[in-house]
Each structure stands twice: as C-alpha cells, then as structure tokens.
Amino acid sequence: MISKRRLSKSEDKESLTEDASNISKQPLSKKTKKSHVYNEVEENDSAFVKLLKTSGIIPKRGESQNQLVVDQAIFQKKLFQTLRKHPSYPKIIEEFISGLESYIEDQEIFRNCLLSCERLQDEEARCGDEAWSIVEIQCCTNCMGPSYSKSLIKLLLGIDILQPAIIKTLFEKLPEYLFESMNSDGINMPRLIISQLKWLDKVVDSKDLTTKIMQLISIAPVYLQHDFITSLPEILGDSQHADVGKELSDLLTENTSLTVPILDVLSSLQLDPQLLSQVRQLVMGKLSSVKLEDLPVIIKFILHSVTATDALEVVSELREMLDLQHCILPSLLQTSQSRLKNKGRMSSSGNQENSGEDCVFLLFDVIKSAVRYEKTIAEAWIKAIERTHPESEHKTFDLVMLLIIYSTNTQTKKYIERVLRNKIRSGCFQDQLLYSTFFIHYLVLKDVFPSILSLAQNLLHSLDPSIILFGSLLYKYAFKFFDNYCQQEVVGALVTHICSGTEAEVDTALDVLLELVLLNLSAMRLNAVYVKGILDYLDKMSPRQIRKSFYLLSTLAFSKQTEGSSHIQDDMHLVVRKQLSSTIFKYKVIGIIGAVTMAGIMALDRRRPLNLTQGKADLSNEQYTQVTSLLQLVHSCSKQSLQASVLYYDEFANMIQGAKLAPKVLEWVGQTIFNDFQDAFVVDLCAIPKSDCPFPVKALYGLEEYSSHEGIAVSLLPLLFSQEFAEDEGSMTSQESDHKLVSPWCLAPYFRLLRLCVEKQHNGNLEEIDGLLDCPILLTDLEPGEGLESMSDKEHSFMCSLIYLTLNWFREVVNAFCRQTSPEMKGKVLTRLKHIVELQGILEKYLAVTSDYSPPLGAFDFETLDITPHTSTAVSAKMKKQGVTGGRKQKAGGNKTSSHDVLSKEDGSECDPTPSSRGQPGKELKGKEEKTLSLQNYQFLFRELDMEVFSILHCGLVTKFILDTEMHTEATEVVQLQPPELLFLLEDLSHKVENVLTPVAKRVPFFKSKGSPSIGLSHIQQRSGQEIAHCIVQLLTPMCNHLENIHNYFQCLAAENHSVVDGPGIQVQEYQIMSSCYQRLLQIFHGLFAWSGFFQPQNQNLLYSALEVLTNRLKPREPDQSLEELLSQSFQYLQNFHHSIPSFQSALYLIRLLMVILEKSTAPTQNRGKIASLAKHFLCRVWPSGEKEKSSIPNDQLHALLSIYLEHADSVLKSIEEIAGVGVPELINSSKDASSSTFPTLTRHTFVIFFRVMMAELQKTVKGLQAGTAADSQQIHEEKLLYWNMAVRDFSILINLIKVFDSRPVLHVCLKYGRLFVEVFLKQCMPLLDFSFRKHREDVLSLLETFQLNTRLLHHLCGHSKIHQDMKLTKHVPLLKKTLELLVCRVKAMLIFNNCREAFWLGNLKNRDLQGEEIISQNSQASTVDESEDDTSSQVSKNKATELGEEDEASDGEKEQDSDESDDDAD
C-alpha cells in the first residue's frame, strides 16, 4: 500500500528528522530533554503502532514526547479513514484498543500518551517525508501553528469510533493511580487522566461517561473528589446536567465535606429550579456551621439559584443566618486594634491582610456581582432590611449591603436613602452599629468610598437631626479608617458643606472637623490647606459658626509649631486685623470673635500635669507678648462701639470659662479687668459723685445695713445720665470723655468677665468680689406713682433703660453667686431673684405708657447679623401697644411675675409647637401676631441665665442671719422660693430645654426666621446636649418636689371648693401662677425625656438615673432594677398627677410625657390603653373658660389630644361611633352656647376639630387594614367584612352630619377625607368583596347599599360647591368625581367576576344641593356619568392608580382660616 511505503520511507530517515528537529520541552516535566536517538522510537509491530505511524504520529519511548508529524485534525481524519476502510473493520477496532492497552502497560509510555505531543516544523516534515504529496505538505504548512498539541489519548478520544473503548480503558487504568503519591516530576496521574476527558468536541455515550465518572468520584480520595467534581462541567454535555445535578445533590447529603465543589459545579449547570431550590434549602440549613473560607462559593450558589418569586424569602433567610460579625470579628480584632493603635487608620497595603479578611473580601465580591447584574436580588435585599422589625437587632452586614447596593445600582439609590432615613429615625441604625461596620468591614467599604461620600452628602442635606448625625458619622469613620487619599476627600467634602451657606450643614461640618482634629490632629494638619479655605466664607456664618471656624484653624495653626502652620497663622492674622478695622459691625464681629479665639488657643496652659506644681508656664515671652498685644488690639478697636464692647467682653468671658489659660496670661487679664471695673462702676457711698440728673439719686436694693459713710455701691444712674447728657451735648464731648466714662450698658457683661476671671484664679471662690452681691445700686425711685402719665417720653425711655440695666445687673449677679453654698449667700441670691421679678413687673408698667421706645439689647451675640440691635420704629410702636395690652392682661390674669409674660406673651407657644395662651386664650389671630413680634424682641432684652442658676430650685427654707457691726447675730430671717420666682425660673428653663433638647419630630431648622427662639441662648448653645440633659437630671428631684407640692395645692383647692374650678374661694392670681408652674414643670419633663440623645448607648446611664428619680418617689430604691421596671413605675408615678391637672395645656403635656415614657418601653401595649383612657378623661372633663366666655382650649391642642385618644384606643371605629353617635346628637339637641354632656370639650365652636380628626383617623385606620386575598381563610374574610361594615357605618354617620353642620370648614374636610376614604375602599375593600360575594351575598349588598347613600351625598356636595363657586371647595371636586366614577366600574367588575352581570344597572344622577334640591344648570352637567345605581344601590370604583392624586392632595398643606389644623395625616 502507498501509505505503508510512505511510512517505511519515513522510518528510514528517522534519524535525520530527529537530529534536525527543535522540539519544545515537555511542559509538565522538570527534567531537561536529551538529544533523541533512533532506539527511542517505538518499534512495536502491533496494529496500534502501525496505524499511528501511518496516520502521522511517531510514538516514542522513555521520556521523549510522541511526535506529531501532521496537523491534529489531519491525523484524526487519516486514522478514522484508515480504520473504517480497513478490511477487518470493525475487528480492527478491537485490535487497535488491545494494542493501546498493551502499549500503555508501561507507566512511562502511558504518561507520554497523556502528555502533549511534540510537533515537527514544516521544513523538518518535508525533509523527513519526501514521499508526501504536495497537497499534504501544503496543508501541513498552513495548519500547523503553535508548537503545543493535544496528547495522544486526547487525539484518539476525538475519534467517535474509538472514544467509548478508550474511555473504558482509561477508567480501568485510573484506579491503579488513585492512592499513589505524586510522581517525582510533579505530575498527578489521576488528574492527568481526567483532564483528557475535558472539552471533547463530542461525547458519544455521555450517559455511560456520567455513570463511570460518578462511580469514580464515590471511591476516590477526598482531595481527588474535589478535582473530579469541579471538572464535571468541562466533561459532560448539556443533556447530562439534570442527572448529574441529582446525583450531586444526593452526594451532598451524604458527604458534607464536598459541599464547596458540588455547589460550585451546580452553579455552572443548567438545572431544574425545583432541584436548585431543594439544594439551596439543604445548604441554608448548614450555613451556620460552614467555614469562613467556604462561604463565597456557597453564597454564590445560593444567589445563583434565586428566582424572582423567591428572592425576598431567600435573601431574608440568608440575612438572618449570615452572621459575619461573629465569624470575622475574633480573627480581625487583634490585627485591627494593632493598626488603629499604630497608625490611626488602615494601611493601603494588602500584604498584611490575613486569610479571614481575604475570604470576606471575596465573599462581598460575589455578592456585589450578584446585586449588580440581578436587579431582583438587589431589590429583595433592600426589602429584607426594610422589613426587619425595629425590635430585632440589625447587623453590620445590613449596613454593608446597603452601601454596596448603593454603589453598584444607581436605580435604587433613592430607595436605599429612604430606607436608611427610616431606619435612622426609628433608632435601628445607631452610632455603635456604624462604628462596628467600619471596624470590621473597612476593606470592603473602602472599595465603595465614593458612594459613602455621596451618601453622607445627601444625608447632611436633611432637616432631621438624627439623619444629619448619621451622615456626619459616615464622614468621621471614613476619615478614621481609610487612607490619606480618602481623608483628603472627606475634608474637601466637609469644607464644601461649610461653604454651602446652609446653617445645619455648616454647623454639622464644623462639628465633624473639630472631632477629626481631636481624633487625629497630625492627619488633619496634612489637610490644613483645604480647611483654610473657609476664611473666605466667614461673612456668611453666624457668630457660633465663626467661633468654631477660628477654633478649628487656631488649633491647626498654633497647637504645635510646624513648617506648614506659619502660612495659616499669617492668613488668620490678616483676616482678623482687617475685620477689626472695619466700621461695619457685621465684619467687626468676625474680627472680635476670631481674635479672642486665637488668643485663647495661643495662651493655653500646655504644661504636663507633673509640672503644674513647679509654677513655670509653658508660654514663652514672645508668645505672651503676642497674646497680650492681640487682646489689647481687640480692646482698642471695640471701645468706640457699644455693641462691639459688649460682644468683646462676652466673648472674652466665654473664652476664659471654656479654656485653661496659662497662669501668666490669666494673672494679667484678671488684674487689668479688676482695676478697670472698680474704676468704672464702683463708688463709695461716702463719695457719691454729684450729678445734674433731674431724678434724686438713691442707694437702693442693698442687702446690708450700711451707714452713710461706709460701703460701696454700683454707680448706675449717674453713668446712664452722663451718657445721655454726653449724647445731647454732641459727639465731641462724648469723644473727650470716652477715656474716662464706660458705658453703663457694659456693666453686666464686664461683671461677667470679672467674675469668671476671679473664679478661674481662685478655683471658684468669689470672696474677692462678694461685696457686689449685697451692695446697693445708685438709682432713683422706680415704682411708678401718680406722676407716671405726666412724665415725658424721654423720661419714660430713661426709666425703662435704667430698669433694664438693673435687671441685667441682677441677672448676672445671680449667675455669679448661685453656686455659693453658705445659707447667707443663698438667702441673698433668693432676695435678688425676688428683686428681678419685682422689677419686671415695674418695667411692664413703664412699657405700657412708653411710645416708640427701643429696648436695649442684653447681648450682641445674636445669630442673624443682619438684624439691627435696636428694634425699628414700627416695632417699637407695636411694642407700646403690646405693652398696654399686656398690662391689661396681667391685671386680669393676676400674674405679675415676669415681663416675659407681657412683652413676649410666652406661654405654651414657645415650648409647645402649637401656640397656647395662658392668660387670654380666646384671642387667636391677634394674639398670635403679638406673640410673633414679642418673641422676636424678647431674646435681646435680658442677659442670659446660666444653667447653674437653676440649682436655686433645690432651695427650701433658707435661714438668713443678719449680723451687727461686731459680726454677731442680730436677727434671723427665713427666705423661701416663692411661686412667682419659681415660675420665673421654670419659664427660663423650659425655654432652654425646648431649644436645646428639642425632639426630632418638632425641630425644623430650615428658613429660620429672624425671631428664632435660639437667639439669646448663645452661652447654653456652646454646651452639648448631653451636658444640658445631665444638669436637668440633677434638677429632677427638686422639680418633683415642686410638682408634688403644686399637685397637693390643687387637690386641696378642689376639696375646698367641691371640685368647682371657678369657686369663690379661689384666688385668681395665685391660681394662675400655680397653674403656669404646673405646665412649665410638665414641659420640662417632656422636653427632657423626649430628648433623642437617650437612644444613644453612651447616654443610657443618664436615662436610668432620670427614671430612678421618678421611681424613688413611689417607693424606696431597689437595686438592679431593669429598664422596663423603671419605665413602668415612672409611668405610674406621672399618671397619678392627672387628678389635679388645672388646665387643658397641662393635660396635653402630661399625655405627651406619658407617651414619651411609653415609647422607650419594649412592651408598650399594656399601657396604651391607659393613654387612651386618660385622654378620654380629659376630653370628657369641664375645663375653666377664658375671657368673654370663650373656650380656653386652643384648637390645635384639642386636635392633638383627640388624635392621641383615637390612635391609642382599642377600637378606633367604636370610639368614633361613640363620639359621632352620642356626643354630637347631644350637641345638636343643646342650646347654642352649650356643649355635649358626655364630651364637654365638644361645642359648636370645636365641632370642626372633632369632625376633622374623626374623618382623618377613620381613613388612616381602614388604610392600615390589609386587602383580602383568595388565599385567606373564610374566618379572615368574615372578620374583615365585619370590620368594613363598621367602618362604612361610621363613615355614613360622619357624612350625614354635614346636613346639620354645613359650615365651609366642615364641607372642606368632608370633600377631602371623603375622597380619601373612597379610594381606600377601592383598594382595600373591593378585593375582599370579590371573594366574599358568593358566600355572603346579603352582607355585601347591604354594605354597598349603605356606601352608595354616602357617595350620593358626596355627589350632592360637589354640586353644592359648584353652585357657591367656592374655590377652596371646588378644587376637590374633579378628583372626587373621578374617584366616584371609578367606583362604578369597579362594582361592575366585581359583579362580572361573580357571574352576576345582570344585577348591574347604570344611570345618571341629577345634580342636587345639600338640601336635595335639583340644581338647574346648563346641559353640560348631563354629559358625565357621576354615579350609578344598581338593584343593590351600590356604587364604587375601579382599583386604579389614584394614589398620585391622593399624594398631590395631601401635599397641598391646606389650613382652615379659623382653625390651626395641620394636614400631616393626609399623606
């Protein structure tokens, strides 16, 4: 044969071919090949060897590779044709396989057959086989590409007629090598054999191959089982995936050690979803016991097997079982703590990551890939986190997942932000959880750092303080845990917030930067150049923000002298000097605050504690000179302006109070201030300067008996008169005397500065200046007599200014000496407090008759710098008018305790988000306008009281000793805190509490008006909320004493007057003062316990302390009480006060206080009924009426209490039915000015409030009821049908009330909430009727008939609105009519669904008014179908997307003209 002749020629020239060849080395062998010789060629004469040589392969022995002379495809083709055309076919196949089996008996030969063949180059092939045809050589030249080729076995497996036999041979040979160790050349024979079966072009008998390989897996060692299983996808065809998947799932149950490779393979196979679900359930059950390194593969399989229908269920279960925090934390703790200790942030190098971190990183990569490409998984994960109950604890894994999805899926960003906000508001995501998330998963979070930055920026745009805090923590922890680049980006983002101009953002960003300075000062210095940019935006900041900015920059520039800090120092000095030289007060404020803050940082005492006793300061002479010169510069630049001087003294005082200055600087400051104050304001009684003042100068308000030639006094009247005289004489005289006279307006701030200096120098001892507490003041007779009306306007203004100055002096004196412990000092402080209350009453009388008086400001550190310190003429005119009105009110109300009450009318409106009136509740619109004006001006009038002043509340009976000249006791006097002084303190404290510890739900710091209540609280706002809360907790015991005393007072009063509020034995003035004290105490309690800071872990002990105080009032202290026990007993203690509540405002605050206590409990349901019962008790109680026989209950407060009652009632529907079915008929049948006997708070004036709340709560209640489904049981269908019957009955009762009460506000409420109720009926009730119609036909028809009558009345109301052309009413008509039309279609659809179409009849309704009279109008009204009537008289609409209309309606924010109702519940 020709082929044999060719083969013979090739063999003759074998040596030439081998010598000329340049064969590539064996890829898996570590030995270097030697030159091939002739005897390495296989000389076997078997049919196997001959056929190989004939087809183009030269088999070799030893370590030499088999040589492939032709292309692989040509070889396979030649061998296939040779076998098929062989005369002995198919017997030749058996001979060939037999020869193969014999040939591979030798292990070396078998190894060579499994390794790749060696391919000859085309030139060598031509030289080695000259007999080949030109076509074959050309084919060989074109086809032979890279030197790598398949092994001999793999080539033979590619021939269909040989494949089954060869596979059988391989599987027979493979067990010989299963338990042998690896060869010396590193080749694993079983793996090499299995690799021959991978990626075959065709598998002839795939079922047989599957059977063989699965049998092999069952007997192989574990390490080979992993390899064999993972090779299955590369070996098997698609047709065998199902069988293999089933066998692998069975193997998974038998051998858990193979979980990872099996799941890895199952993820790559096309399997039945049901099988995947079964395997997934099996794996989920073992998830808690899986090793950390196996988690990525397992999670990949679980997520791969998820479908859209079961995604939420699987992800929820996976989230519950995947507790990475406890898996990872132990392995990371040591490494992470080491890094935090050494560097303060995580290193960017990956070399130090341990295996646990790598596994976690890989795990999150798997999850990230799943949520990026599978939208259903991402949405399911968000929903799983969203639906987690607040009671259950969230994990760090939840936060990481939200951040990962936020970074990978842009379409879900808004959704994730909404979920985050809700979780933050509910207290689920707190500081500790966020810190743990960054601490454990910092490597994962670093990859999504840009998204974290974007999320933090969006959260800081919120108005909710808790959300803003969470955003600031994202910045803080990103800076703490990430590298330098991330830190730079964080600082840049915070500076951007500062430059935005939004107050809340600026405050938060500055606070975060200050925390970062404390956290890592060295890292912040590297980014100081970015922080310096805020100097360009100081003119847009408030004083508090300017102070923070300079403190931040000064700390970076002066805390440690570095090369990079000098340029910041230069820029700050330039800005300060430029602003100090400005004549515009707004810019001078920046210079004063900046200079004083810089001086405070420069003069800090930086001595170490061990060196304090040595008396040597750390401050060099150069630094001392810089500090003193800077302070002198500020003093000289501010003394020309009264406002600037007062601001300088206050700022200087705050700096001394908050900083620990170097002794050298403090000594210089104290000596200078002491001498200047004594020279300016203190005179000897024996040397009172003569003055041309028309008022007689007298030394008044002295607390000690001095002879005419002894003692000192504060020169107030002469200074004020001299200033007024200087202003009249002209500016020249004023300039000449400026170096001698100090403005009397500086008296109070200067004394505050002096007092703080003395406190710092003497560790709180004020003996050096205690003479100022009891010394008299040079005044004139202040009590207005008969000559008050005859005084000129200038004299009135002069007297008002004199009283203001005296009041501010006394307030600062009380601030200074309130912490003194001796009874003598306490008695004097109480006396000064009494003087303050008396002077405020006198001031009210002067203001009532003073026209166009601009009240002076007590402090100039106001937050809105564009407000002029003195009020305008228009405001002054209103102030006069207001003062007159206030005087009459005070006379009528009998409350003369505070000008606060008359000037600002500060009642419940300042502490309550809803305005309330204490003395004259009947005046609504006018009263509110006056309150607004007064609140804007009041904050500037008086000096701020410090928190330490309220320690006076501890005082009971104080025995004051009066000494003679020889220091012997001459007499004793008992001093006690009286109700007017108590009310004065409580009003001020409640104002502070409401503005510092404001609950999240009430604080809206956006578009803050110029009359913001935070103005005038600059001192307290420099203290944290935690400090304020701690101070108030310390005051709880005395406040409880006062609360119980007032409670006993009203109990005795009720007993004496037989529970008649307006009885003859009641003293109106005393009653109102005690009632106001009661309300203020409850306001303070509510403000404290509503503080959001109690939810933070670091404040839990403070909450325990507060609750223990209340609990101990009931019974002696018991150790180790749980929080639930404390909350329950505190609730009981506060509930006991409801019998003595004197006013509706106090009742509302008591209810709110109990609700706040209840919110902190984990089991609040047991006390919810008590809240409802108490609220109903207050609604059914007769309250004292106000002036002109009008109700003393403000509408907004009645709305709030009624809403609380219905929200906490066991059955809202029954409660509504009781009010509408019992209380309203009583009102209808009573006289015009009477009220309901069951609900005395229900009158014709308050009916619209009751109606609005009942309609809103009815709609909210039915909206919360889940729609019925066909899968529900019959019992559930019946219960829901009964519930809807009650709801429709209540709706019918309420709707029909408009026939009696047809006022415009009532009709507006009916249109608005009537439409919302119909829409809820469509969405929630109609699906239920679909499934209940057949079994409860009569009930459904009765329900629809009742509802049809209500919708017909709504249709008549639409016609009524059009006839009267009321725009406020007609804007609701289109949406309502659309909803009514949808109802028709929906009823028809329900009847068709139940095969009852013939029962539906459609017709036109005539337009009628509320009285039922037909409206005669144009034909246009007949062109629309408004309602339908079938033989069941039913009418409803289709369940369609009217939600948009509902939301648009809710967003209108309508408010009735004659009621203060907010429509928040319509959302």
Q: Using DSSP, what is the number of strands?
A: 9
Structural class: mainly alpha
What is the count of helical runs?
64
Low-pLDDT stretches: 1-39, 122-146, 329-353, 610-617, 730-740, 863-936, 999-1011, 1418-1467
Please give the largest β-sheet.
4 strands, mixed
Helix percentage: 55-70%
Radius of gyration: 45 Å
User: Which sequence of strands runs across the widest sheet?
Assistant: 4-6-7-5
Q: What number is the mean pLDDT?
A: 76
Our estimate of the beta-strand percent is under 5%
Overall 3D shape: flat
What is the CA–CA distance across the termini?
Answer: 96 Å
Brief account:
The chain is mainly α and 1467 residues long.
Can you tell me about this structure?
The protein is mainly alpha-helical and 1467 residues long. The chain contains 64 helices and nine strands. The protein has a four-stranded mixed β-sheet. Strands 1-2-3 form a three-stranded mixed β-sheet. A hairpin with a 5-residue loop joins strand 8 and strand 9. Helix 27 packs parallel to helix 29. The longest helix has 29 residues.
Provide key terms for this protein.
four-stranded mixed β-sheet, about 1450 residues, three-stranded mixed β-sheet, disordered C terminus, mainly alpha, disordered N terminus, about 0% strand
Task: Chart the SSEs and their pairings.
Elements: H1 2-12, H2 14-20, H3 47-55, E1 57-58, E2 67-68, H4 72-84, H5 91-103, H6 107-114, E3 118-119, H7 122-128, H8 134-143, H9 152-157, H10 163-173, H11 189-195, H12 206-219, H13 222-230, H14 232-235, H15 241-254, H16 259-266, H17 273-285, H18 295-304, H19 311-321, H20 324-342, H21 355-373, H22 375-386, H23 396-408, H24 413-425, H25 431-447, H26 449-460, H27 465-481, H28 484-498, H29 503-519, H30 521-526, H31 528-531, H32 543-558, H33 566-580, H34 585-602, H35 621-638, H36 642-658, H37 663-681, E4 682-684, E5 698-700, E6 712-715, H38 717-729, H39 731-736, H40 747-761, H41 771-774, E7 777-779, H42 793-817, H43 823-849, H44 873-893, H45 899-903, H46 908-911, H47 925-938, E8 957-963, E9 969-976, H48 979-996, H49 1025-1034, H50 1036-1056, H51 1068-1089, H52 1100-1111, H53 1123-1135, H54 1144-1159, H55 1165-1179, H56 1195-1208, H57 1212-1228, H58 1247-1263, H59 1274-1296, H60 1304-1332, H61 1337-1364, H62 1367-1370, H63 1373-1393, H64 1443-1450
Parallel strand pairs: 2-3, 6-7
Antiparallel strand pairs: 1-2, 4-6, 5-7, 8-9
Helix pairs in contact: 2-7, 3-4, 3-5, 13-16, 16-18, 18-21, 19-22, 21-22, 22-23, 23-25, 23-26, 25-27, 26-27, 26-28, 27-28, 27-29, 28-29, 29-32, 32-33, 32-34, 33-34, 34-35, 34-36, 35-36, 36-40, 37-40, 40-42, 42-43, 43-44, 48-51, 49-52, 50-51, 51-54, 52-53, 53-54, 54-55, 54-56, 55-56, 56-58, 57-58, ...
